[in-house]
Amino acid sequence: MVRFDNVSFQYGTGHHVLRDLSFHLQPGSFHFVSGASGAGKTSLLQLMYLWHKPSDGRVSLFGKDIAQLTRRDKTLLRRRIGVVFQDFRLLDHLTALENVELPLRVQGKGGTSVSEHVAELLAWVGLGEHLHAYPPTLSGGQQQRVAIARAVIGRPSLLLADEPTGNVDDRLALRLLYLFEELNKMGTTVVIATHSEQLVQRFQHPVIRLAGGDSAAGDPPRQRHG
Ligand SMILES: Nc1ncnc2c1ncn2[C@@H]1O[C@H](COP(=O)(O)OP(=O)(O)OP(=O)(O)O)[C@@H](O)[C@H]1O
């Protein structure tokens, strides 16, 4: 599903954010990515979402070397990936419900049953009272949960989520993790970047531990992978 072979990455001529990183995420697996602020978690997820190319080494996604992909290939692959990045990218002129429905509408699905399903999901993430709210009227944490619902609604092959529990209390964080586990049970490969050692310990999924590229010179990134 996702394979990194001796991947290094730097922005321009800057320091190495990731250095000589290798792992293989099997289809249907669930991994956490952990590491201190600045260790490269977001950059790693962005590589998986085809925003960057590695400076060295090889990243393969769905069995394809990302350096070889055309723009059209990338668009097609991205349709199979659900993402929650830290800038939620919601459409401000659509309600929470409409934002989450959008990926399904793009797939030609719509109607009352779809709206009911979306409303149920939004209620599960604690937004049952805000179905018809527009993103600018929601808090950061609420907007993030709309983005999470939008990322999971279409049951993507791969889900990438960057600090998805960063803005919520412990109870909601657990609910969101249960949601990701349900999705994973239905076959989605899940990759969650988190600062929270508590969540990592509680859920017992394998962890890719980033120590930071150059900041960890001489100390290769520790990782467990399945
Ligand atoms: N667009 C960019 N251009 C240049 N350097 C960048 C860019 N984005 C991130 N960096 C640098 O890359 C390093 C890793 O950043 P990244 O955001 O991937 O880490 P992170 O582990 O996700 O951090 P955080 O937990 O604070 O979000 C940092 O030193 C950061 O300053």
From TrEMBL:
Keywords on record: ATP-binding, Cell cycle, Cell division, Cell membrane, Membrane, Nucleotide-binding, Transport
Membrane recorded as keyword: yes
Gene3D superfamilies reported in the protein's UniProt record: P-loop containing nucleotide triphosphate hydrolases
InterPro entries for the chain: AAA+_ATPase (IPR003593), ABC_transporter-like_ATP-bd (IPR003439), ABC_transporter-like_CS (IPR017871), ABC_transpr_LolD-like (IPR015854), Cell_div_FtsE (IPR005286), MacB-like_ATP-bd (IPR017911), P-loop_NTPase (IPR027417)
Subcellular location: Cell inner membrane; Cell membrane
Entry superkingdom: Bacteria
Topology in the lipid bilayer: Peripheral membrane protein
Signal peptide: none
Domain ABC transporter: 2-226
GO biological process: cell division
PANTHER family: CELL DIVISION ATP-BINDING PROTEIN FTSE, IMPORT ATP-BINDING PROTEIN
Stated family: Belongs to the ABC transporter superfamily.
Function in brief: Part of the ABC transporter FtsEX involved in cellular division. Important for assembly or stability of the septal ring.
Name of this protein: Cell division ATP-binding protein FtsE
Species for this entry: Limimonas halophila
